Structure formats: C-alpha cells, structure tokens
Amino acid sequence: MSTISPQPNNTLIDLRQVVKSFDTSAGKFTALKGITLSVNKGEFIAVIGKSGSGKSTLLNMITGIDRPSSGEVWMGGTPVHKLGEGKMAVWRGNNLGIVFQFFQLLPTLTNVENVMLPMDFRHKFSLTDRYKRAMQLLDQMGMAEHAYKLPSAISGGQQQRVAIARSLANDPPIVIADEPTGNLDSKTADSVFNLFEKLASQGKTVLMVTHDGDLAKRVKRTVLLSDGEIIDEYLAKTFPALAESQLLAAMHKLQPITYPPGTVILRQGEVADRFYIITQGKVDVLLRSDLVVAQMGKGQYFGEIELMRGGTNVATVRANVESGVEVAALDRETFNQLVTKSKAAEEAIQRIADERLAENIAARKGASDVS
Question: Residue 92: which residues within 8 A CB-CB, separation 6 or more?
Fold first, then answer.
C-alpha cells in the first residue's frame, strides 16, 4: 500500500461524524459523539481534556487501533475505517509514528536497535541504510552518543528522545504523541516539546495529547474534548474562563452560517440580535456604505458592542468581497448568559467593545473631515 498523499485541500487527518459506543455492564456508553475534525499537513495540534473526555478513544480512531461505530476516518486519501487488520498494520507502519507516555522501548535492545526495529518490520530501507538512518535520527535527537546503551542506562527524558527517533524510523507523514511529556520534569518536557515543534516546521503533522496546559498554549491550535465532543475552539478562546459544561451547552446553540462575498451581515442603524465569531474568511467593517475602516479574520468576533450596550448597529459589517466568510453565531440570550457567567470574559469583551467604539468614533470624525 502506498503512503499518504494529501487530499486536494491539504487535509491529512479527516474524521467525519465519528461515533464510538461501547457495551458495558451498565448499558451502552458513547465515548465519542459525532466527532468531526480536520488536520492539515504540517499542523501541530494539542488535544486536551479531562480524564474520560474521549482523548484515548479519539487516538484509537486515528491510529486504527479501534473502529468507529459510525462515521468515517480518512487519513489522506485512505479510508482507514474500512481497512482489514492486515492492510491496517501495513498502512500504520508506513504512515504513522507513535510516541507513548511510557516510552515502550524494548529493554533488551540498545537504543539504536530500538530505532532500527520499525525499519526491520517494514523493509523500507536496506540493512546498511537502516543502521545509518537510525544513527542520523538519534543524532537529530541529540542521542547519538547513547546509541549503544540499553534504555535502562539513560534518563526518562533521554528515553523519550529515543522513542521519538523510533517513531520517525519509516519517515511517516504523521506523528501521534500520547502524553509524551507526562512522566518528565518541566525542563525536560519543554525540550521534548521543542522537538515536536521542529518536526512540524519540517512538514510533519503532529497530534499531541497532553494534560499540560502550559504546553498546550504554545501550539497554534488546540482541540478541547469534553464528554465525547469537541468544543468549538473559537468559542473556548472567546470565553476562556467558562467551565467545560458551560462551553458545551453554548456550543450546542452555535449556528454555523456561510455568507458569500459582499453579503451584508450587520447593517448600520438596524437592531442587533446576534454575536458572531469568524471561523473562516474575513469581514469588512464599513461606515456609510463604502468606507472600509477595518477588517477582521478567523478567531475574531463582532456584534458585541450592540449586545452589551443595547441600541442599533454602529457600523455595517459585510463578508469580505474576495473571500466571503464563515461564522458561528450566538443569539442575544445565549451571549448574555455566557457573559454573565464569566466576569473575566465580560471584562475582556467589554474592553474590546470600548476600543472598537472609540475607533468607530474616530473613523466617523475622519470621514467627516474628509468630506
């Protein structure tokens, strides 16, 4: 079987409405509830969530260790949810590098032999090239001088570096790391995290499950799992002080809307009734009907001034004339409830609302002076 080739939109990991249920003595338990997730080539993503949130089950879906009860798992152009066990093992060996929390190095093999082992199974490299590649990978991890030692002779952090080198043995496009820093001190964990950042910069797609909130903040994108569902990342960033249960309840009320290029979303002078978070594309902020005074993109929001202050829209907002825009919208009641529940969110949004109102007034004055 061939290795992964990117889909037209550059997506390597693509989960589509994945549900996973288990039969237990207490009845059916649903660990994943309609998960949809896309990860592009070269992304470094942190998956976070409390114990029991579904992180391990999610990894099992991606790695093919388990199959979804319903839904689809596509890795590049491969529907892994349809592969038999034999084909799955071959596919996994060629396309995934997996790093475990407890290292999983074979104790009777030297470090270089541990790194060579995946190549021995896949026969992707000649015997001579396997040794050469293993030494190169150990050198890349700063572990070449420990190549002929047994794992027991080096520290935990050093063992994890060897484990990362092993995960790269067959040059997989995707690296899956399951709590890779969970057993390391903070300094060593930071060093290991830097290695993952370097791998992503080299084009590897890295998906890391972690309980370390500080490390999770350093990646560009975080996937927050709660009770088997992914909480919208932009909602979580907008209301960071809310409890997961509150975010989950709000997420169920988010309405995704797509506006074609040039479509007016808010019109100056009309009554406001929604709060909008941009998930794709851009919007233009206009005074009158033709003066663009600002532009906002993914992760930013608008509509908060009117909802917090009352009254009508202070400016017109339209989908960018070139890109269009996708938003997640909250109704006035839900927005007000979220703001009321989080003093920190209320203060942050109020601060931005005040800044935008001041910019609006300045823009109006500037436009008036020009005319």
Answer: 63, 64
Q: Is 13 helix (H, G, I), strand (E, B) or coil?
A: strand
Cβ atoms of residues 48 and 211 within 8 Å: yes
Q: What is the pLDDT of residue 107?
A: 94
Query: For 71-112, how does the pLDDT look when each residue is reduced to its tens digit (9 = 90+)?
Result: 999 988 889 899 888 888 888 888 899 888 788 899 999 999
SS3 assignment, position 38: strand
- Element housing 347 (H / E): helix 343-370
Positive or negative, the CA dihedral 109, 110, 114, 119 is: negative
* Burial of 84 per CB tally in 10 Å (0-12, 13-18, 19+): exposed
Q: What per-residue string of b and e applies to 284-299 under the rule 16 or more CB within 10 Å gives b?
A: bbbbeeebebbebeee
pTM over 0.85: no
Burial class (CB in 10 A: 0-12, 13-18, 19+), 306: buried
- Judging by DSSP bridges, how do beta strands 291-296 and 283-287 pair with one another? antiparallel
User: Is residue 166 exposed (0-12), middle (13-18) or buried (19+ Cβ within 10 Å)?
Assistant: buried
Report the C-alpha gap between 123 and 118 in whole angstroms. Answer: 9
Residues in the chain: 371
Residue 342 token pair? 């989080």
Spatial contact of 101 and 179, defined as CB atoms under 8 Å apart = yes
Nearest CA-CA partner of 115 in 126, 131, 100 = 131
The pLDDT tens digits for 277-289 are 999 999 999 876 6
